[in-house]
Amino acid sequence: MIISSTLDFREAARRRLPRFLFDYADGGANSEHTMQRNVLDLGDVALRQRVLVGGGTADLTTTLFGQQRPLPVMLGPVGIAGMFRRRGETQAARAARAAGIPFCLSTVSLCSLSEVVQAVGHELVWFQLYVLRDRAFMRDLLATAQGLGVRTLVFTVDMPVPGARYRDAHSGMSGPNSSLRRVLQAMSHPAWAWDVGLNGRPHQLGNLQPVLGKASGLKDYIGWLSGNFDPTIRWQDLEWIRSSWQGSLILKGILDPEDAREAVGIGADGIVVSNHGGRQLDGVLSSARALPAIADAVGDKTTVLADSGVRSGLDVVRMLALGAKGVLLGRAWLYAMAARGEAGVTQLLDLIAKEMRVAMTLTGAHKIADISSKNLAG
Fold first, then answer.
1. pLDDT of amino acid 224
2. Do 17 and 345 contact (CB within 8 A), yes or no?
3. CA-based angle 182:185:186, to the nearest 5?
4. Separation between Cα atoms, residue 15 and residue 88, nearest integer Å
């Protein structure tokens, strides 16, 4: 099929993947209202068109955390991405490295951090950490990341418990007879079964394997999440992370200005305005609606990033105009990787860059630093 947008990648991924994987990627919490609002609210952001401003080709370079980047875009963390293409995290990381942008590896990835760093080096690799009950294990993960040269930690704060994701039970990702249902679905998708089911092994959570051993498999992935996340964590519990992590610390999952101020108070170098792609608490604000107030509150004190609902370069420009300094992609790169592997992610990033240049040219923004609320209509 002809692919010219993220929606095309989504359809290609739907055709290729077993249902349990596509619904895991595509679904959200409860009625999925927040997930839908992420896209709709961002799409409703009207830009102020300006013409004949003679800026030439738009410059997409920006500086984030002291490093110049060719795009204000990062590949955000996605759990079990290695199930969508053979060793999928390494494929996405290679595409990110070729584009000169960071790739953030999830704690619950198939490929371990050491496998990804061995494939692409440590310079553009970030590591995402969840709130786990076992603090000693968290310390071990931090030590491993620092030992591999990783300098940016993304600590996800909006998942003390997994959200209620109805699609996972219906699709076979969880629930009764889930293992059998997944096998049957795999048999009806032979290309995926060959690429990932047979040749993408081991199907284990690579970062957890040293501790969990055989229990790090995916037989009850959702059950493991429920049993090992920690709903008791408080702001003061993050102080040991800040004091022990010798690099940039970014807190992901901020939706309220008060929480943003708390993040600044513990010394976070950045925050990600995010509702986890609508996968946690349904009915909360979309990232696009939450972002302006948070940027106003702490934008001069820390680096404000954003995710959730971003499907195009136009959406990236919208997020920047709402107050973000950079944008994390999630489902967008996962769809692209599921559809075409590393080449798909590369194509997606090229599309986003082209769409950003169009939007910037027609709003009179010559460089990334020019994009602000002045580019919004009304």
1. 67
2. no
3. 85
4. 18
CA distances from 131 to 234, 235, 237 (A): 10, 12, 10
Q: What is the pLDDT of residue 133?
A: 80
Residue 276 annotated as catalytic: yes
Q: In residues, how long is the chain?
A: 378
| Beta strand residue intervals within the chain, DSSP E | 62-64, 67-69, 73-75, 103-105, 125-129, 152-156, 248-254, 270-273, 303-306, 326-329
Q: Give the per-residue pLDDT at 213.
A: 66
Instruction: Return the amino acid letter for 186.
Output: A
> Which amino acid is located at 136 in the chain?
A
pLDDT at 237: 82
* Other beta carbons less than 10 A from residue 235's beta carbon: 12
Q: Using N-to-C axis directions, what is the helix angle for 19-26 and 178-187, rounded to 10°?
A: 110
Distance CA 56, CA 252 (A): 35
What residues of the chain score a pLDDT lower than 70? 212-226
pTM above 0.85, yes or no: yes
Catalytic residue among 33, 170, 189, 276: 276
